[in-house]
């Protein structure tokens, strides 16, 4: 049997490396890496039963909505290296009024904001932290627009590793920065944008022997596959027509696509859902690349701008993987404006669900794709809400009080504004206002 190994993603290279080599790119061609396994002894029906049984167990790894499914990412040799905060286990939530807003008969949100640190980054970080521990690393680092650092800080500290965080100065939602500090990460605010800081940190990682946990790390991608595995388990393996998610660095769509293809090849599901990636208009290099015929070289965007800071990425590292997944699932890429994101977000909030700005790009994109006839009104659609509503409270208050400004300073209209009302201490007046 072939051992788990790393493989270069570039079709003309496909070089193999040991699973314990500390690599972020292929040393031969510079391409992306991915984990590969010999799945020949797996039985889908038997595993479906095992995974159901684990949901009833009190064993920590069975409780985890990531490690419950570990047979589909068996890269860890010793389970003692795993750090779990009982990540995953996120709900599928129907939302009829949000469906109507999106031009659909029905919609289901897979809400990754229910994770321990409030975003889907936990699904990948538990896997990346496990690999860091198995490699004997002492320090881990990432560059982040926010959620990666919050998640890495938590998993590193929980697992006895020192977390080092690099963030663009003055460009991070407060909920996320607070988490990184609270979880004990040494935090550096650098006067540069995300893409520049990533280059800097790669130099530092090499020089100081620090393990990098950015989304280029192939083990984070492996952990994030659990989002679609759990989703299919929760749906009793009924494949939706569409899975819609926001795109920044494009690690998540890469993980979804890989996980879904593996599940199809192993007989867990009989077809692939179509993937739709939604970008913010001010930060949409992947949208432009795919629209213009998907012909390399990929053109990075030098000054990405959006209030949805989790997807404010001009040079997404995982674009080759994302391209493969969009093409092999018959997927699409769409982009939406700041106003469209803000109104979709308030709609998700008014459904009692709520999410952070980047997550709301999904519903805004669905609204455009149904209007264009690309997604059918009757389609079975799962939209992934990637982060928790409390990640970015400033955005919320500004929207509802009519003070939200797009990066170019143009006002965002509070279409569904719900500002607090200042009242005198007077029961009659308040009764009148309540009506
Ligand atoms: C990281 C993140 C994204 C973007 O995911 P990628 O894998 O970088 O495409 C979207 N939404 C939220 C809330 C995130 O934290
Ligand atoms: Zn290569």
Q: Which helices and strands appear, and what pairs or packs with what?
A:
Elements: E1 5-8, E2 16-18, E3 33-36, H1 44-55, H2 60-63, E4 92-94, H3 96-101, E5 108-111, H4 121-134, E6 139-143, H5 147-158, E7 162-168, H6 174-182, E8 186-190, H7 194-208, E9 211-212, H8 218-234, E10 242-246, H9 251-265, E11 274-280, H10 285-291, H11 319-328, E12 332-336, H12 338-350, H13 357-371, E13 381-385, H14 393-400, H15 427-434
Parallel strand pairs: 5-13, 6-7, 6-9, 7-8, 10-11, 10-13, 11-12
Antiparallel strand pairs: 1-2, 1-3, 4-5
Helix pairs in contact: 4-5, 4-8, 5-6, 8-9, 9-11, 12-13
What keyword list fits this structure?
435 residues, Rossmann fold, globular, six-stranded mixed β-sheet, binds pyridoxal-5'-phosphate, alpha/beta, binds zinc ion, four-stranded parallel β-sheet
